[in-house]
Amino acid sequence: MTYAAVAAQAGNPKAARAVGTVMRGNYDPTVPCHRVIRSDGQIGEYNRGGPDAKRTLLIREGALRA
């Protein structure tokens, strides 16, 4: 799901940047914030190890290919 899609699901389709800000500050391991990507299809940042860690998790879950 993209940041914009998460914002829309939350009721404010224009709040994609706010979603990114919330995700950046989230360190709760029960919230799968690594599954949120940019609207242009790029991985984006990840506050628990950067884009490489995010990519690794997505590959492990089968959402991306190695």
Q: How would you describe this structure to a colleague?
A:
- The chain has one domain (3-60).
- With 66 residues, the protein is mainly alpha-helical.
- The mean pLDDT is 95.
- It has helices at residues 3-9, 16-24, 50-60.
- The protein has three helices and no strands.
Short summary of the structure?
This protein has 66 residues and is mainly α. It is 41% helix and 0% strand.
| Global mean pLDDT | 95
Number of domains: 1
The low-pLDDT segments are none
Shape: globular
Task: Describe this protein with a few key phrases.
globular; 66 residues; 3 helices; mainly alpha
Topology (elements, then pairings):
Blueprint: H1 3-9, H2 16-24, H3 50-60
